[in-house]
Each structure stands twice: as C-alpha cells, then as structure tokens.
Amino acid sequence: MGYRVVRVRIIGGAPQTLQIMAERFDGTMTVDDCAELSHAVSALLDVEDPISGEYMLEMSSPGIDRPLVREDDFDRFAGYETKIEMIDMIDGRKRFRGLLKGSDGSDVLLDMDGQIARLPFNQIAEAKLVMTDALMEAALKAQSAETPELH
Asked: How far is CA 22 from CA 8, 13, 16, 63, 133, in A?
C-alpha cells in the first residue's frame, strides 16, 4: 500500500491494544493515511483473526521523537539526540543517552559527552529520538519542503 511498518506491538490490558506505527517511504504520514491503513489492516485482521480475544487496533505515525527499530534507522537519524535502553548491562548500565553517530554494522555508536559508546544492535531493547530544538527544526524544515507554498 506504499507504507513502511515502523513497529508493531501488543500492549496488555483489557482489552489488549494492537499498536501499529507506519509511515510512507518518504517518512510522512497523515491522519488520512492512518485511516486508510487502519481500514485495510482491520479488514485483514477480521479475516485472518491472528489475535485471540478482544483487542483494539491503534494505527499511528512514529511521530517526531520516533522509535528507532531497524539498523538503518540509526544511520538515517545520525546527528540527533537519542535514548537507548539495552536488554543486558553494558559497562554497568542499561540506559544511554547521547548524540547518535550511526552504526558500523553490528554496533550503534552513541557520543556521550565525547566518549563513544558502542552498543550492540542485537542487545537494544528500545531506542528513540529525544525531542530537542534541533529535531523540531529539522521536522519543520522537512514539512515545509513537502508543502507547496500558496501564492
């Protein structure tokens, strides 16, 4: 349908929530896109019925402070402040925050006040961009480049 799935997860509760984050391949996602994708996925889920019990479907864009999930996300968003939580301890800690420097194939590189932390990609539990002025400015710049000017 022209979308990239960013993340899928089931959140417990009564009823459970099936959360799907998606975006167009150019990184954009509108409310209309969410509605279109939600209707298509809902119809598919009704037929296939892969989840037992009641659940709610939640379709969303990844947002500005998006999760970083794929290896290429860490290269695509290099230069922005990032929070990373590890599965296991690395150097006595699980939580890291710093300037994302990309990846080298097996490790994510994070600049923490001049010290480069090498975090194994396969040990990352969760990672996301941090809402900063630089991230907001980049998002606004990208949005204005996509929106034609009115004359």
From this structure: 9, 22, 19, 10, 24
CA angle 122, 68, 21 (to 5 degrees): 120
Count of CB atoms within 10 A of residue 59's CB? 21
- The whole-angstrom separation of Cα 32 and Cα 80 is 28
Going by C-alpha positions, the residue among 79, 12, 83 that lies closest to residue 51 is: 12
What are the structural domains of the chain? 3-60 (3.30.300.70), 71-137 (2.30.30.100)
71-126: pLDDT as tens digits: 999 999 999 999 999 999 998 999 999 999 999 989 999 999 999 999 999 999 99
Supply the pTM of this predicted model. 0.81
Which residue, 33, 32, 61, 64, is CA-closest to 141? 64
